[in-house]
Amino acid sequence: MSIRPLVGKVALVTGGTRGLGRQIAAGLATRGATVIVAGRDGDRSVEAAAAVARETGGAAFGMACHVGRWVECDALVERVIADHRRLDILVNNAGMSPLYDSLEAVTEEYFDKVIAVNLKGPFRLSVNASNAMVEGGAIVNISSIAAVRPYAHQIPYALAKAGLNTLTVAMAHACGPKVRVNAVMAGPFLTDASAGWDMGAFSERAEREIPLRRAGAPEEIVGAVAYLVGPDSGYTTGAVLKVDGGEAWSPS
């Protein structure tokens, strides 16, 4: 198997300036893809893309997009096609799950924002990207085990990710056979978002509930995404692949 199976492909990664998205962008660039790093802040997107290019020796470009706004989703895909003449891979990674103190504290604005970024945007981007993938392509949605194992402090987020799993299967039917659509259902990962965790409490929970007894390192999601967008997964679509240390189906 080629160590650069994505040479000649153009990949768009949303939420690509940090965390899992940043790692995924670098992983795809290492495998030969030209990578578009999209984030809400255009300057940060350009900086992250430059860092990806330096680290991997690949081609990476930054573009601004708030994925919760359809007009920006439309403009993003249009710009990718205008600048690069093609789009082969879309990774819907951008997401958000701000903490709240109680269910009564969840405002309509909060609820709509979480749904917009985690579900509405991926829907719009997937529609536009699949139409632009004239030579075929692959879409990967970064979901969460919250979709199947939600906690009280993440209900709107869990609803959105459950919807994203459903979107994955539905879009696989809608976009086939030209475009394959799959999802990675991620468990806890040690990204910048984990900086606010109570690590003592997390370690105790990991011992009880996660078969691998730990959180994942960001680079441990890359292989799953690379498989789903690459040639080895040519007969895989509508799949929701969990990468969670085994937590989602834990009996506890």
Helix coverage percent: 40-55%
Q: Which ranges are low-confidence, i.e. pLDDT below 50, for 5 or more consecutive residues?
A: none
Number of strands: 7
Domain unit count: 1
Task: Classify the secondary structure makeup into a structural class.
Answer: alpha/beta
CATH topology: Rossmann fold
Over the alpha carbons, how many angstroms does the gyration radius reach? 17 Å
Name of the CATH class: Alpha Beta
SSE run: EHEHEHEHEHEHHE
InterPro entries: KR_dom (IPR057326), NAD(P)-bd_dom_sf (IPR036291), SDR_fam (IPR002347)
Protein name: NAD(P)-dependent dehydrogenase (Short-subunit alcohol dehydrogenase family)
Pfam family, one: adh_short_C2
Family: Belongs to the short-chain dehydrogenases/reductases (SDR) family.
List the helices and strands and how they pair.
Blueprint: E1 10-14, H1 19-30, E2 34-39, H2 42-56, E3 60-64, H3 70-84, E4 89-92, H4 108-132, E5 137-144, H5 155-175, E6 179-186, H6 199-209, H7 222-229, E7 240-243
Parallel strand pairs: 1-2, 1-4, 2-3, 4-5, 5-6, 6-7
Helix pairs in contact: 1-2, 1-7, 3-4, 4-5
